[in-house]
Amino acid sequence: MIPEEPAGIGQGRRAALAVLASGVAVSIIYALFSSGFGRLRPDAVADAVPVRTPPEATLAVVSHDFWLTYLPAGLERSGGGAIEPKGAWARFGSGDRFVEAQVEPAADWASYRSRASVLDARATTVRGRPAVAGRHPGGGRLIVWPERAGEGAWIRVSESLSRELVAIAASVKGPVGD
Questions:
Q1: Rounded CA gap, 139 and 156, in Å?
Q2: Residue 63's beta-bridge partner residues?
């Protein structure tokens, strides 16, 4: 049989031991965090993490109410004009690389989609609108979509810029309310 101690004496020892253990734990945690243990050195971060620089902002106007805010570097405007009654097109290129953009009248999406020549077409979206992407009969890649009521748009890129097609289409801007 274990003799009983006077009431309250055992509890004081346990409380003191708990405070002491808590103080030791706090001291160890503080020492670990203040020592820098586990932190990457700035020179190690530069070597370990590749830094991706954003592309330069490029404003490429196709018409008064349709423009691109992203074009791959090194492309210059090399053509364009009006499409009657209400539309426009523009070509940007250098060497064998090019981007063509066009906005034109379209009665509705079904008729515009059937009028567009897209080989190996697959459904997708551009800025929340239905779209069709595929190959252009004249070469390169193409994406076609209804820009707004009564207007359709498409962007064609050379094969060398095929990875940039979606980024260029996503960069299309128009007036507020489009």
A1: 9
A2: 66
Return d(Cα 75, Cα 90) in angstroms, integer.
12
| 3-state secondary structure string across 64-129 | CCEEECCCCCCCEEEEEEEECCCEEEEEEEECCEEEEEEEEECCCHHHHHHHCCCEEEEEEEECCE
Q: For residue range 5-14, list pLDDT tens digits in order.
A: 555 566 778 8
Written as six digits, the tokens of 36 are 């820098």
Does domain 60-173 bear CATH number 3.40.1000.10? yes
Query: Smallest Cα–Cα separation from 101: which of 165, 156, 146, 162?
Result: 156
pLDDT surpassing 60 at residue 87: yes
Read off the tokens for 156: 């064609």
pLDDT digits (tens, 9 = 90+) for 94-117: 888 999 998 888 888 888 888 888
Is there a contact between 119 and 135 (Cβ–Cβ < 8 Å)? yes
